[in-house]
Amino acid sequence: MAHFGTYTYVTPFLKDVTRAGPRLITALLLAYGIAGIIGNLVAGTMARRALRATFTAAAGMLATATLLLPAIGAGKLGAMVLLILWGLAYGAVPVCSRTWFVTPAPHAPETASVLFTSSFQATVSLGALAGGATVDSTSTSAVMVLGGLAAILAMLTVQISSGPGQLGSPGHNGEPTPARPAVVARRRR
C-alpha cells in the first residue's frame, strides 16, 4: 500500500518540489525502472534463503526513500538517489509477496496466486484512495511521508508475523521451507 499511495504522485512531486523538467523526470523514472529490475532479480535469489529479511529490507528501503524524499528530494541528486533506492526496494516487493503466499501452499499454487493477485489489487485500491485523499487535502510531500509510515507498518508486520504458512508455529523463523520430494512407495516383486 505504501508504494501505491505514493508512486502516482512522484511526477507531481518532482515537478513541484524538485523543480525537475520533463527530460529530468524521464531520466529519473528510467533510473527507477532499471533499479526495479535489479531489485527484482536480487530479491529472487535472496528471498529463497531469507524471505523475512529480504521482505523487511525492501519495506525498510521503501520507507527510507519515501520519508526522506520531502527532506532531500528537493535537490536533483537527492531525488535521483532516493528514486533508485525506491526502485530497488519496490522491485523486491512482488517477489517477496508472491513467495509469502505460495510457500505455505506448494500443492495449490493456483489458489495462492489468486490470493496474491487479490491482495495486490486491494493494496492498489487502498493505496490510491489514501494517496489521493492525502494529496487533495495536503501536498505531494505529505503523501510521501504517509507512504513511508505505511512501509514502516509493513516492515513491522513482516517482523512480528509468524511467517508464511506457519501461523502459531513456535520457533518458526518465517523462512520458506524447501519443498520435500514426494516419497513414492515401490512395490517389490
From TrEMBL:
GO MF entry, a single one: transmembrane transporter activity
InterPro entries for this protein: MFS_Efflux_Transporters (IPR050189), MFS_trans_sf (IPR036259)
Disordered: annotated segments: 165-189
Comp. bias (Low complexity): 180-189
Residue intervals passing through the bilayer: 20-43, 55-73, 79-101, 113-133, 139-158
Keywords: Cell membrane, Membrane, Transmembrane, Transmembrane helix
Protein name per its UniProtKB record: Uncharacterized protein
Organism expressing this protein natively: Actinacidiphila cocklensis
